[in-house]
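ASSEMBLY PREDICTION REQUEST
Request ID: AP-0331
Submitted by: J.K., bench scientist
Number of chains: two
Total residues: 534
Priority: normal
Notes: Please return the full assembly, not individual chains.
Input sequences:
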Amino acid sequence: MSDIFQNVEPMVHESRISVPYHWWAGDTASRFFIDLRDSQKIMGTRCSKCSKTYVPPRKTCPTCFTPNDEWREVASQGTLISYTVVRRHQASLPKKPPIIYGLIQLEGADTAVLHIIDELKPEDVKIGMKVQAKFSSQRKGTMFDIEYFRPVH
Amino acid sequence: MDRAAIIGVGMTKIEANKVRETFADMAWEAVNKALADAGMNIGDIDNVITTSNDFWDGRTISCMAVGDASGVKYKNVSCVEGDGTFGAFYGLSRTLSGSYGTTLVTAHSKGSESVSSLITNASFDPIYDRAFGMDMVSSAAMQANAYLHRTKTTAEQMALVSVKNHGNALLNPYAQLPMKLTVDDVLQSEMIADPLHKLDCSPVSDGCCAIIIANEERATRYAGNPVWIKGVSFCSDSFFLGDRDLSRAPSLSEAAKKAYQMAGISNPAMEISLAEVYDAFTHQELMWIEALGLAGDGEAAKELEKGSYTIKGSLPVNPSGGLLSGHPVIAAGLIRIAEAVKQIRGNAGDYQVDGVRLALAQGVNGLCGQSHCVWILGKDK
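STATUS: Completed
Returned structure:
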């Protein structure tokens, strides 16, 4: 860098990128959210080629590159595949930490759903534990129609 | 026309906050260093690939911010969104196409200018996953728990990666976080997301790297010392975290297998002199070493404890200090390539590994290592 710029005070421009955006959920996710909202049912899509059931549902099978041609209801309980307890506050968090996040493989599904785990102390969460969906009383057709997953007692 | 070499590398110092430098200032420095390293001038560059990410840069068409400083005027320039190793892969393809004899590849970002948790949260699927508020760190923490659970690797062993890499960085004048640490220092640092302590995580960083790739005919035309590209491959896994076994990295194994095959390597742990891997988090260095076939499944921590991965060890890993000592997103993978080049040429300074013939460099893109790019570089054509 040339000397002529050496003693220039560094100016910083503050800004915020805030661009409204709405995503069309697609017909597959729409069906999933409608069943969740109206019937408290968790639906997956099944690939007839590899027999895998995808939850959350996918329109096509990522393994076989074929359309998933069957809807299948899965259980609202399953196994905790992995988890983390977020301790430090981050701007992306929806509430104050600690927050327990988990990957839950529901009974009848071959993939895991991401969600929040609650109603237990962070030190009691364990890989392999059974957890169950707690449905929200105010369901709007989003992932938060399941408020969180809690341990099966 | 199937041989190509890296004939010049240049990088900025990695820093927490380059408040005095714009993206273009960083690119200008890295590009001019790479040109000087190769003994070339900008007129010798046939085409340019810039690597950047619009979210990290806070603007669309982010490549245009560094175009002028990369000498793209009246040249064919294209941009890759993702890690710098993927930009370099495209640059290599263009060089081998026969249309261009030389390709300049740059990669930059300034983590200091944004809020990383918001940027990386935006890489989650907006319909199913994003609203939970997870980010790069919390997803990596989930991966770490899955890996520790399956392999019985411990938090102490993870901490030892941090001790080694920050220690190596003491020898690297370009590193952001040179530190003399103990395992206890790591374990007593703030818990960010279980099981990741602050010192298990790479820092937020600013930096830029540039490399110059040339075909066989052009590789020896200039004053620089060519390092030959022996094998390269990249491979991607499923996007959704719940579709993968997070405790494993099959896409990295697949990429490595193809790169080794191309390079004629049958026993990577014996034949590779050193590896610069994408240690964004301590457990990832161990996972990647295993998936690269440089250690048995679940065995990397034991090798680490034996000292195999130190600068004087049997297989030095991240002698530069790695991402744990400086992680400018996007540039980080290209820096791995540049470090491997320096090691092969014997000009890595105080962290030079003895007798380097073949070096491995790895880049990663996506949450929990969704995609991997593996480069094998060598002294001999």
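REVIEWER COMMENTS: The helical segments of chain A are 26-39.
SIGN-OFF: pending second reviewer
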